[in-house]
Amino acid sequence: MPFLLIDFPAFKPIALEIGPFAIRWYALAYICGIVFGWLYARSLLKNERLWAGPAPISLLQVDDFILWVTLGIILGGRTGYVLFYNLPFFIDHPAAIFKLWEGGMSFHGGFLGCVVAVMWFAYRNKIPILSLGDITTAVAPVGLLLGRIANFINGELWGRATDASLPWAMIFPNDPTQLPRHPSQLYEAGMEGILLFTVLAIMIRFGALKRPGMILGAFILIYGLTRIAGEHFREPDAQLGFLWGGLTMGMLLSIPMLIVGLILIVLAVRRGAPKPLGAIR
């Protein structure tokens, strides 16, 4: 083995085991992502300075919304994986659709599930859709960070083969080729999690929540860019491989996000920030 090649850490698949109950790393990432996201959302809603007055969403409403967005993530993520990544297999094995413990979730499907949850909840509770979308996407990088770390711990969704002289190249135990590869899960954790969260937090600090749709648009645009960048280091799903012109499914699904995100940002800028109560008109 080359001197610089890093051994993949030997992680156990079970994160927490209490008697007959076992929680795997991926499930723990979902649980912690939702809990931490909920706490962060509450802290943003409590800070009236960020909204130029009382937030348009109450703390009780965001508490109720947690169940909706959780269902959106799970149902949308699984549906997206079935449709976008492995439809022929699931047509032949429909019962496997419900075996979530075997893995298989799509971010793009989960995002669309969240969009449905946001629109439905906002309509039922008569709250601004764009503001609810802003608060949802402001906290989303927390879950993305933990999810990518769980991918790494599970030794799945590994990167493309690289030269063994790369100091951080790894051989993943489940890789049948046993080639040194990029730990692309960590690249994505840094871009989709830490970088995206930091950029959105800075935007919020400078008043982006006062322009409904701004954070939502920035999240969609930046995620699309970081996902496309990350796909250059990530090995495509074996059942799909590379598509047209060397593109991957993740790249293709992210391209519309660039357009939608840019449109939302432009509309938010043109719309301007709402005037505070009592301002001269």
In short, what is this structure?
The chain has 281 residues and is mainly alpha-helical.
What descriptive keywords fit this protein?
281 residues, mainly alpha, 2 domains, two-stranded parallel sheet, two-stranded antiparallel sheet, 8 helices, 4 strands, globular, membrane, Lgt, transferase
Poorly predicted ranges: 277-281
Structural domain tally: 2
Mean pLDDT: 89
**Tally the helices: what do you get?**
8
Q: What does this 3D model show about the protein?
A:
The protein is mainly alpha-helical and 281 residues long. The protein has two domains: 13-56 and 130-271, no CATH class; 61-127, no CATH class. The chain has helices spanning 25-46, 59-84, 87-92, 107-125, 129-153, 184-205, 214-231, 249-271, and strands at residues 6-7, 14-18, 21-24, 170-171. β2 and β3 (21-24) form a beta hairpin. It is globular, with a radius of gyration of 20 Å. The relative contact order is 0.12.
List the helices and strands and how they pair.
Blueprint (H helix, E strand, L loop, with lengths): L5 E2 L6 E5 L2 E4 H22 L12 H26 L2 H6 L14 H19 L3 H25 L16 E2 L12 H22 L8 H18 L17 H23 L10
Helix pairs in contact: 1-2, 1-5, 2-4, 4-5, 5-6, 5-7, 6-7, 7-8
